[in-house]
Design a protein that fits this description.
The chain is mainly α. It contains five helices and five strands, in the order H-E-E-H-E-H-H-E-E-H.
């Protein structure tokens, strides 16, 4: 089975009613079961059920999704695109040790999980900065 990591997956208009039905079903606390070709049932493992719930949630909201393994290695351009920064800026982050990477010949490779970790840290730093600006604004009377 080929997994399309570079192709977004999105429900088409014909699938939307079915996706909504599935969304209602998976709101239950117990994992649904699959029916195999012989009619036997297989309960979904919790990990598969959690992934399915996330996929259905995003598809119900009209979002395209990608399924990417955490250890997938990205090029510097792919990583820069995910972070919405320029490739030279990303290379600077790599060289300053902000994001781990490996080299394949002369090419840098960055694990998808490391990009997501950096993005999470960056978001937390932004939130702290905004909280600090709000605090200073309140103390100086600029913000009520």
């Amino acid at each position: 089975m080929r997994v399309l990591e570079r192709e977004p997956i999105k429900a088409n208009a014909n699938e939307e009613p079915t996706i909504s039905r599935i969304g209602c079903i998976i709101k239950n606390k117990s994992a649904p079961k699959l029916i195999d070709p012989d009619g036997g049932t297989i309960e979904l493992p919790q990990s598969v059920f959690l992934v399915l719930k996330q996929i259905i949630y995003h598809m119900m909201h009209g979002r395209a999704i990608f399924i990417v393994p955490a250890d997938k290695e990205l090029t510097t351009q792919e990583a820069a695109d995910i972070l919405k920064v320029s490739r030279p800026y990303l290379i600077g982050l790599l060289e300053r040790g902000k994001i781990p990477y490996s080299k394949v010949g002369s090419h840098r490779r960055i694990r998808f999980a490391d990009i997501m970790h950096y993005q999470e840290i960056r978001e937390k730093e932004r939130e702290r900065g905004l909280e600090e600006v709000a605090r200073i604004s309140q103390e100086t009377g600029l913000y009520d």
